[in-house]
Amino acid sequence: MRTQTKQIRTKTRPLLSKKAKIIDAYASINKDDIALVKSEGDTIWYLNDSYYFYKTSPIVAIVRIDSIGGGRNFNPIHNQYVSPQTVGRMTIIQPIKGEVEYGEQVSYARLGAILPVEDYLKGLSKAEQDKLNHLNKGNKLSGYIKSKFAEDIDIEVDKTYLVFLRRDISKDGKIAEYVMEGMQYGMREVKDSQARELKAGTKISSNIEILNNETGTWEKISTAVEIK
Question: Would you kindly state where each structural domain of the chain is located, as residue ranges?
Answer without folding.
Answer: 23-223
